[in-house]
From TrEMBL, chain A:
Gene3D superfamilies the UniProt entry points to: MetI-like
Superkingdom as given in the UniProt entry: Bacteria
Keyword Glycoprotein tagged: no
Region Disordered, annotated ranges: 1-23
One GO CC annotation: plasma membrane
UniProt keyword annotations, A-Z: Cell membrane, Membrane, Transmembrane, Transmembrane helix, Transport
Domain ABC transmembrane type-1: from-to ranges: 108-320
Main localization (coarse): membrane
Native species: Streptomyces phaeoluteigriseus
Cellular compartment(s): Cell membrane
The protein's name: ABC transporter permease
Family indicated by similarity: Belongs to the binding-protein-dependent transport system permease family.
GO biological process, one term: transmembrane transport
Automatic annotation (TrEMBL), chain B:
GO MF term (any one): ABC-type maltose transporter activity
Protein's name in the database: ABC transporter permease
Main location: membrane
Organism of provenance: Streptomyces phaeoluteigriseus
Subcellular compartments: Cell membrane
Matching InterPro entries: BP-dep_ABC_trans_perm (IPR050901), MetI-like (IPR000515), MetI-like_sf (IPR035906)
Biased composition (Polar residues): 1-11
Amino acid sequence: MTVAIDRATGKRRGDAPRPGLGQRLKHGYQKHWYAYVMIAPVVVVLGVLVLYPLGYGMYLTLTDANSLNTGRTIGVNEIEATYKFIGLDNYADILWGETAYDRFWSHFIWTIVWTAACVALHYTIGLGLALLLNQKLRGRTFYRLILVLPWAVPTFVTVFGWRFMLSDGGIINSALESLHLPTPLWLEDTFWQRFAAIMVNTWCGVPFMMVSLLGGLQSIDSTLYEAAEMDGANAWQRFRHVTLPGLRSVSSTVVLLGIIWTFNQFAVIFLLFGTTAPDAQILVTWAYYLGFGQQPRDFAQSAAYGILLLAILIVFTSFYRRWLNRNEQQLAI
Amino acid sequence: MSTTTVETSADVTERPTAGPAGGPGRGKRGVVASLASHGVLIVASLIALFPIAWLVFLSLGPDKDDYLHPGRIWSKMTLDNYSFVLQNTNFFDWLKSSLIVSLGTTVIGVMIAATTGYAVSRMRFPAYRKFMWVLLVTQMFPVAVLMVPMYQILSDLQLIDTYLGLILVYCSTAVPYCAWLLKGYFDTIPFEIDEAGRVDGLSPFGTFARLILPLAKPGLAVAAFYSFITAFGEVAFATTFLLDDEKYTLAVGLQSFVSEHDAQRNLMAATAVLIAIPVSAFFYLVQKNLVTGLTAGGTKG
């Protein structure tokens, strides 16, 4: 596939012996200038608004910046920045400092549990629904339209809906009570907070998986199923040996995206609990709380959490890619 | 795989699909199996629908504590909450900001993402793989690490509290994913079309604008939808970067509304419903193309 693409511009690569560096640069420029023009806007926007802030953020993690010592303007008075360089102290403090368990590791473990549980639920439920929708069934389109609704309505709206339902005396507890079941304090008790967060996020995230996997299912060649049936494969065997391999490339992409998005899922937890539930905060919302939700705002620690999060994700993604490539899967990147 | 052409995937919704349908051995179990499928799908639909329907229902109750006694709402349903929200709050200002920001992000984002996607789909320039990798990595940036520096850059550029600033910030999150998705979609368009265009004397840009873009409409629709939803529902950046309460987007406005009318949950519910309407409308406009576009994006990464 990657070879054929080059035909689009009629270019081939890699045949001739490599000329010198200057010539190669010049040649590369002539050959690819339109490609560079086309990606230039992205490079500029990402460079200014992502890479530069990232570099600056990394610098902040090496200082003790907070809202009291950064430069700011109050009315006509300019206050000089007075924060200073402290090296890797922030990281050391986060990872090994006193009460590091309460501040970092407990959130870290909860974030891992949260990501694993949410993505597993998203994927399983999404796949199940996609399989059901992929049959010849009356009212298929109708079901699909309703099932994507949680995706269609913005998260901040639906989360408020869930807050109504979960609040003490809301519909869920009323229903549980009428069934004589225990009525947990969804928004106050740590365990149930976490349970509620996973539940709401699952509800929000399933449609994306469902739609993507449904697309993947529909791109599987139907003759493969016929052949399998001809060979006497039962439903489970067809699923195991035709459907799953056919879905592998879609799955590997959506699972990776799902993990990244869930790991960084800000809106659900932030809107469900605000800053009232320190134990239910995943690392992202916790970092936001440190940087913007308390006084004085601790910019340096917040940024350090951000960098740690990024590092975790990058390491994970690299392993994920390597693992996929070992199984001869292409993630096309 | 790469020959999953535009035509086959375009009529995907009508096609009686492959797999379990049909087949001689399956006729007997058909009734039970399809009843079970319907049962599961109905339950799932109810779960998907219920929180939203509940929100709509609660928004009709006139008293602030009605959510605790939903039974009483039936007898005194009213649209008073809606008229109050529309007349006595900044709702329309918020809606205007939200629409400016989301549509701005959609237009700019899709344009940039389309050229980028085309470039990475068709042209093998040096550093192309690294570039794709960077696009993926930008998906991973947590808000916390970028917020402070972004705030400073935007204030240096005098873009704090402006729509343009927010649009640019949202583009930086929406564009990488859209470019990725569109790259996959462009890959499904046969390269012969490009070649034909080149032979007929079009420049690379001409080929792109006149031949490829019209063919890629389903993919563009998905990218547009994604950008719109991202921008419309984003909370963290909007909370931090917008200062003037007339410029709040709906996501921020709803929050300020909550603290302002803390006990008046009926008004909050009404606002939430009003917000959901334009987005859902937009969603159902593009949903036809959703499966097609996402598949192409998904399968090819």
